[in-house]
Amino acid sequence: MEDRAILERLETIAGPRNVTMHADDLAPWLSDWRGRITGRAIALVSPETAEQVQAIVRLAGETGLAIVPQGGNTGMVAGGIPRPDDRAILLSLRKMNMIRSIDPDDNSITVEAGAVLSVVHQAAEEHGRRFPLSLGSKDSATIGGLIATNAGGTQVLRFGSMRALTLGIEAVLPDGSLFEGLSTLRKDNRGYDIRQLLAGSEGTLGVITAASLELVPAAPHRVVAWLGLGSARGALAMLRRLEGVLGDAVESFELVPDTALALVLEHIPDTRAPLAGGHPWHALVELRTANDPEEMRKYCEDVLAKALDDGLIADAVLAESEGQAAAFWKLREVISEAERADGMAAKHDVSVPVSAMPEFIETAREAVEARFAGARVIAFGHLGDGNVHFNVRAPAGSDDRAWFAQTGDAVSRFVHDMTRDAGGSLSAEHGIGQLKLAEFGRLADPVRLATMRAIKQALDPLGIMNPGKLVPLANPPKNP
Ligand code: FAD
Ligand code: MLT
Ligand code: ZN
Fold first, then answer.
1. Which residues line ligand 2 (CB under 6 A)?
2. How many CB atoms sit inside 10 A of residue 74's CB?
3. Is 157 contained in some domain?
4. How much is the ipTM here?
5. Residue 394 maps to a domain
6. Domain with 407 in it: what CATH number?
7. What is the pLDDT confidence band of residue 477, given thresholds at 50, 70 and 90?
8. Which of 115, 264, 312, 406 gives the lowest tally of CB atoms within 10 Å of its CB?
9. Is residue 413 part of a domain?
10. H-run or E-run covering 392
11. Residue 2 lies in a domain
């Protein structure tokens, strides 16, 4: 079918105001957040109802077009960017952003897929509840994208990742049928869990149109601390001590190396280091309670004072106000932005068993520096989940682009091999998308790959849903 005829069909389905083929309208949505990958699409369509999504998916099936679902386009692996050679419809869910219902007694909220995370936070708070998943992209990332990538963030330690918080899903499947799974049941044992199959499927098995999410009590009081440490091992020991005394109140424990803090202070306005003096490592801790915050603060101070005496930490400061707590959090949440401003990086989103992570960070850094002269490692993030962003930058003063063109793939293979050898995963929370596809195909065990291909084939026999993402082909074409 000619592009013009497709446009007319899409306009009939979604209305002319929701369809565009103009290059200027499409451009912002055809490159990933880091600007590494740029794709192509025939049209950008922004449906307003699940019925419209169904009709668009049926049109794609009829005409052999690819459907690429997209939310906020904050994904880290270019899963929401069409490939340059596909005849693709870029399907934006951003206009489907209603809060459908909220039930404080049920501790649940039901929202359309395009609802932005920070809006969901706000809605929950207005009802005395919390949606306990947060990340640096919260003002753009959508619920559909977060479920499709099974996003993690900074409270996984306490509440788990997106899967754990998703009670129900409504989705358009590749044949255009509507899976109406918006239940908020906590117990439902009717066999295969289609909701969990769609979570983490990166748009390859269907288009999520709405979801029911778990809410938790508000726990309005928080204590936020910034610690200075000599080693990542000390950081993990500190986390375990805090948990020993404060239990579930410990909701976040994020690791920040001095190199990441330096990038933030250099590139992000209105930031300053919480502690005087340099420390090789820092940790950001958040404790939450619905009870007496002074009591929790006191316990926290006692644990930290003892840790200082024991030499486990080198320094610590507790935020004195909400403003200061927000300033500490900003330092953590803008690391990616600062890193992007500073230049290119080979990003690795790796997990290993939590207890093995401190040693992994050190040995993998030493190995990378020994193998790739001058390479600079920045490992930061979710230590308590056994997940760090193990990013490798070109030698200082070198030509980034030339270095990565020549060395980037070898660096990533090296890091991923070490991760596999440590019993880990090459994608802890960002997914596979396009950027990790070849590496996933190289390293995944054959039974996992065969099972994923069988599921994909069963649900999407025409291969229209987000082709070239997540599921490696059985026989990928060789590079010329
Ligand atoms: P998009 O980027 O638009 O899409 C992501 C994937 O989901 C694509 O494969 C797309 O096809 C698919 N998709 C999107 N919507 C739908 C839908 N409705 N139905 C089916 N498939 C769909 N991630 C973490 O896990 N933890 C972090 O701490 C974290 N921090 C971040 C910080 C920053 C500054 C940034 C820029 C990103 C961060 N991310 C983090 C990346 C994270 O994956 C995204 O923020 C989020 O999960 C993607 O949501 P999105 O709406 O932007 O999805
Ligand atoms: C983070 O934890 O800040 C993110 O996952 C983003 C990133 O890895 O760049
Ligand atoms: Zn992360």
1. 76, 136, 335-336, 381, 389
2. 22
3. yes
4. 0.99
5. yes
6. 3.30.70.2740
7. low
8. 406
9. yes
10. strand 387-393
11. no
